[in-house]
Design brief:
Elements lengths: L2 E2 L2 E2 H5 L13 E4 L5 E3 L2 E3 L3 H11 L6 E9 L3 E12 L2 E16 L2 H7 L5 E6 L3 H15 L5 E5 L5 E5 L2 H10 L5 E10 L2 E11 L1
Parallel strand pairs: 3-8, 9-13
Antiparallel strand pairs: 1-2, 4-5, 6-7, 7-8, 9-11, 10-11, 12-13
Helix pairs in contact: 4-5
Length: 204
C-alpha cells in the first residue's frame, strides 16, 4: 500500500485535506430576473460560475480539481463536490456537501424597470397589423438579454416599445435594416451628464 509521508493511503485520505469556507461564500441573486452577479455583470445562472467560485475559495496544500453537482433551492444552492487531489504522486478523492446561500437584491436593470426608468421609445407605425407585429418580434429578438422593455399597442394603429437602454435599442433598430428617424428629449442630468430620451420612429 502506498504512503504519503508517515500515513498509509487509507489513513491519509480520511484527513480533512480540503477546506471549503462555505460560511464565507454567497452568490448575489436578483430576486426579480433570477440572474446572478459575476464580477460587475449580471448573468444567467451557470454551473461553471459556481464551480469557479468554489475552487477559488477552497484551500488545500495539494493541487486539486473538482467535479460538482448542484441543486438550486429558493434561498441557497446545495453543492455536492468531489475533490481530486495529487499528493506525492498519489490520487486522492474527497467528497464534501455544503450550501451556498443567496444574497438577494435587485440588479440595475430590474431596479430601473421597477422605478419606471426609460432611455428609449420605438414607435412602429403602419397600416398592416401583421407587418407591424413582425417588425416588433424582430426588434424584441434583437433586444433579448440586452435590456428590459415593455410594449403598448396603440388604438390608432402601431405599437410603442419602451426600453431601458438606448444603445441597445439603436443597435437593434439598425440591425433590422429598415428606414427610421430619431429625436431626442432632455430628461435631466445624471452624474453631471445630460440624459436624453431617444424616440425612434419606424414607418412600416
Amino acid at each position: 500500500m502506498p504512503f504519503v509521508g508517515a500515513f498509509c493511503m487509507d489513513c491519509f485520505s480520511k484527513q480533512n485535506l480540503v477546506e471549503v469556507p462555505d460560511k464565507s461564500m454567497e452568490i448575489t441573486l436578483c430576486s426579480r430576473c433570477l440572474r446572478i452577479k459575476s464580477g460587475s455583470a449580471w448573468v444567467d445562472f451557470a454551473p461553471a460560475l459556481v464551480e469557479a467560485l468554489v475552487l477559488r475559495k477552497s484551500k488545500s496544500p495539494y493541487p486539486l480539481s473538482a467535479r460538482m453537482s448542484f441543486t438550486r433551492g429558493k434561498h441557497f444552492i446545495d453543492v455536492k463536490a468531489e475533490f481530486h487531489l495529487k499528493a506525492e504522486g498519489n490520487d486522492v478523492v474527497q467528497e464534501k456537501r455544503f450550501q451556498i446561500p443567496f444574497a438577494k437584491t435587485l440588479c440595475l436593470d430590474c431596479s430601473r424597470e421597477a422605478g419606471g426608468y426609460k432611455e428609449a421609445i420605438v414607435q412602429i407605425r403602419g397600416d398592416d397589423e401583421r407587418r407591424v407585429e413582425r417588425v416588433l418580434h424582430l426588434l424584441e429578438t434583437a433586444l433579448e438579454g440586452k435590456t428590459f422593455w415593455k410594449t403598448e399597442f396603440k388604438k390608432t394603429g402601431g405599437v410603442d416599445l419602451t426600453a431601458g437602454n438606448k444603445h441597445a435599442v439603436l443597435s437593434a433598430v439598425r440591425s433590422l435594416k429598415k428606414p427610421f428617424s430619431t429625436s431626442h428629449k432632455l430628461m435631466g442630468v445624471r452624474n453631471g451628464k445630460k440624459v436624453f430620451l431617444v424616440t425612434v420612429l419606424m414607418e412600416i
